[in-house]
Amino acid sequence: MTVLAPSWLEAAHSVRESLKSDAAQRDRSGAAPRAEVELLRDAGLLGIFVPREHGGGGASWSEVAAVIGAVAQADSSVAHVLLYHYFGSLAGTRGENGFVGPERARRIAEGRLFNGTVAQAAYPPLITATQTPQGFRLTGTKPFTSGAALADVLVVWAAFDEGTVLLGNDVAGQLATFHVDAAAPGVSFGGDWDNVGQRLTVSGTTTLTHVEARTGDIIGYGYGVEESSAADHLDVLHMYAGFATIFTGIAVGALEEAADYTRARSRAWVESPHSRATEDPLVRERYGRLWTQVQSAIALTDRANAALDAVREAGDDLSWAHRADAVTLINAARVHASEVALEVSSRLFEVTGARSSAAATGLDRFWRNARTLSLHDPLPHKQVQIGAYVLDGVEPSPGFYS
């Protein structure tokens, strides 16, 4: 298991307990988790993934994942937007051919700013970046922008419009990322996220209407066009290892909360010879099975997070084969943890009893959250990738989803 710096570990556990105390009520209300973001900010957890040379904590990925996992045990929605924050806070710090990355990272770390992302770069239509004498004008709408409405600053994916020239080169049509303040004129949020689970991720629509950006606000560009190495294609590994961590957190949290309910409130079945539900061998057998499944998710997710640490540490020496090994293991952890989270969050009702299905109890949120997050992109496609790699050594093609 990962060992965190004591202050980060203590802060993560403190946040978890605070979120756990009213998680069911907050889930029912479905309100934007602004107080929850303040809890993360006050706990000093927002800047830990920013490299030390840019003013951050310089945490390893496994340390960051341990924080995300602890939060997910209580509230996977908050863990979800925290993952997106960490993912975006690194933008431009790895040597991309952009302008604002290190400055932006320092601002996030020192100002304890919360980052959101307006992405979906794989799906048109994209935000359009039209060049102007002052810089650029960003226009367009994107759905599923988790956490953007909570953010202080945004990473905005865009496509350069016709006629765009940077550093003397025609870059029309190329993908780029921009730094945008979330409160900038022309940025608006639809407030249209109303899904069955992950209800507090505010994953609705973001619209940019003639938002002004400087050329110096470009984080990077040329994605998929400029020559790149394996080390340039780690973003998706962070996201999917983070999802595996969240699924595992859901499974751990669901099992713990179910066990608390069984110990305190479940009644022995009337035909059982036992006076307490916890003494019933059938209840014990099912908890044994669920606990074993949870341990398997923890173990595989820990391996995946360690694999991501290793490819990050390899730097420019990272080979495509090493990356393929890592992304395959991370995808396996994500698929497995998803299945475990769904199984545990569904089966827990069999050992807590009929009364536990009351809306006020809130145990259903674990399944709703796992089910919703598992649909982020089709996991059967990941199984096909894994099978192709196992059978024929087909390395997943680097991109937005592999």
Automatic annotation (TrEMBL):
<dbReference type="InterPro" id="IPR037069">
    <property type="entry name" value="AcylCoA_DH/ox_N_sf"/>
</dbReference>
<dbReference type="Pfam" id="PF08028">
    <property type="entry name" value="Acyl-CoA_dh_2"/>
</dbReference>
<dbReference type="InterPro" id="IPR036250">
    <property type="entry name" value="AcylCo_DH-like_C"/>
</dbReference>
<protein>
    <submittedName>
        <fullName>Dibenzothiophene desulfurization enzyme C</fullName>
    </submittedName>
</protein>
<feature type="domain" description="Acyl-CoA dehydrogenase/oxidase N-terminal">
    <location>
        <begin position="13"/>
        <end position="85"/>
    </location>
</feature>
<dbReference type="InterPro" id="IPR046373">
    <property type="entry name" value="Acyl-CoA_Oxase/DH_mid-dom_sf"/>
</dbReference>
<dbReference type="GO" id="GO:0006552">
    <property type="term" value="P:L-leucine catabolic process"/>
</dbReference>
<dbReference type="Pfam" id="PF02771">
    <property type="entry name" value="Acyl-CoA_dh_N"/>
</dbReference>
<dbReference type="GO" id="GO:0050660">
    <property type="term" value="F:flavin adenine dinucleotide binding"/>
</dbReference>
<keyword id="KW-0560">Oxidoreductase</keyword>
<feature type="domain" description="Acyl-CoA dehydrogenase C-terminal">
    <location>
        <begin position="242"/>
        <end position="376"/>
    </location>
</feature>
<dbReference type="InterPro" id="IPR009100">
    <property type="entry name" value="AcylCoA_DH/oxidase_NM_dom_sf"/>
</dbReference>
<dbReference type="InterPro" id="IPR013786">
    <property type="entry name" value="AcylCoA_DH/ox_N"/>
</dbReference>
<dbReference type="GO" id="GO:0008470">
    <property type="term" value="F:3-methylbutanoyl-CoA dehydrogenase activity"/>
</dbReference>
<dbReference type="InterPro" id="IPR013107">
    <property type="entry name" value="Acyl-CoA_DH_C"/>
</dbReference>
